[in-house]
Design brief:
globular, five-stranded parallel sheet, six-stranded mixed sheet
């Protein structure tokens, strides 16, 4: 089979499309013929070697954790899924023609493989950070980085729960943020005052890592009312950093429910052939995304 891998840490140029042995579904796992794989910031962070001190990696290594596809192997002890089912979920080395999943759900009616591949990790992250920041119905949540995949999920989940959302994003993404039900404003000079004019902020999420933690603390009045998934200086400022994953099966179940009820939609901004994974990483790292980026297999 073909898969994307890298033999040394570095820039996007280290990625190669190569021949590799097919993985197989062990106990409690399924294998899918991958139709699309989600591109997440964690993927290029791994490729750059940002986690090698805390998460040793044997090279050469594959990439990717989100995928959607067709079940073609079912491991021992797995029930409720059959060969031929269309599923989406989380696994390892999903930038490939075949991948083994450790968590999965059937794809909701009307969802394409391309769309489905963009949901798993962003849903898990969104649900986790909303829980960790402790925001409740009737309160206001400020989301810094509201237009990306995680931001899009956070805005829609929070609105579904009766939380008012103020979202900051680039000028080109204002309509996208407003369309999800948030009050929108732009980054850049004067953004804090623009947020203040939109209302009181009870809690805030830093999803972009754009160096705004001090301002978020000022807006909420308490560093414990801010959670970051992207700024390594968070701990120095007393801001919780959320990096430990929660329950992927629960996240997938909630995604299916919300999508099926028409309460959640994360658009695919751009899709790329598997051979163009490097271009996907370049674009993902540049930010300014409205929704998700995926690889088509």
């Amino acid at each position: 089979m073909k898969r994307v891998s890298f033999a040394r840490f570095g820039g996007p140029d280290v990625l190669r499309l190569e021949d590799a042995e097919e993985p197989h579904a062990g106990p409690g796992r399924i294998r899918i013929a991958v139709r699309a794989a989600g591109v997440n910031p964690v993927d290029w962070r791994i490729r750059e070697g940002q986690f090698r001190g805390i998460r040793p990696l044997e090279l050469p290594a594959g990439l990717g954790q989100d995928a959607a596809g067709v079940v073609d192997e079912v491991g021992e002890g797995v029930e409720g899924v059959a060969i031929g089912d269309h599923v989406f979920g989380e696994g390892e080395n999903t930038y490939a023609e075949f991948a083994v999943l450790s968590a999965w759900a059937r794809m909701p009616e009307g969802l394409t493989f391309e769309e489905a591949a963009g949901y798993p990790s962003v849903m898990e992250t969104a649900l986790r950070v909303i829980r960790e920041v402790g925001v409740r119905a009737g309160q206001t949540l400020l989301v810094s980085g509201a237009s990306g995949g995680v931001g899009s999920a956070v805005v829609q989940i929070a609105r579904e729960r009766g939380i008012t959302v103020i979202g900051t994003a680039g000028a080109a993404s204002q309509d996208h943020v407003r369309g999800m039900g948030a009050l929108a404003t732009t980054y850049g000079e004067g953004w804090v005052e623009r947020v203040r004019r939109l209302g009181r902020v009870d809690a805030a999420l830093d999803l972009a890592g754009s160096g705004v933690l001090r301002e978020l603390i000022g807006l909420t009045g308490n560093p414990r009312k801010v959670v970051s998934i992207a700024d390594p200086e968070a701990a120095e400022l007393g801001v919780p950093f959320s990096g430990v994953a929660g329950s992927m099966p629960e996240a997938l179940a909630e995604a299916v429910d919300l999508i099926s009820r028409g309460r959640l939609r994360i658009p695919v901004e751009k899709s790329y052939p598997l051979a163009e994974a490097a271009a996907a990483h370049i674009d993902s790292r540049a930010g300014h995304t409205r929704g998700r980026r995926v690889l088509i297999v």
